[in-house]
Design goal:
The chain is about 10% helix and about 40% strand. It has about 60 residues and is mainly β. About 0% of the residues are buried.
Length: about 60
Amino acid sequence: MECLEVVAVGEECGVMFPQEVLTRLGWKLGDVVQLSETDNGTLRITRSSDSTLSSEQPL
């Protein structure tokens, strides 16, 4: 399990991922991510290589 830190980003909040997690997932700065809730209430974060969120990669 990884711990993530919630940080201020201007007037919003963001989540910091450790670099080793980003590397393992193949994520990079500027990737678009989507947070969704599954039928059982679990949260899932996925990324897409474009802004349409058509190509997901589960965390």
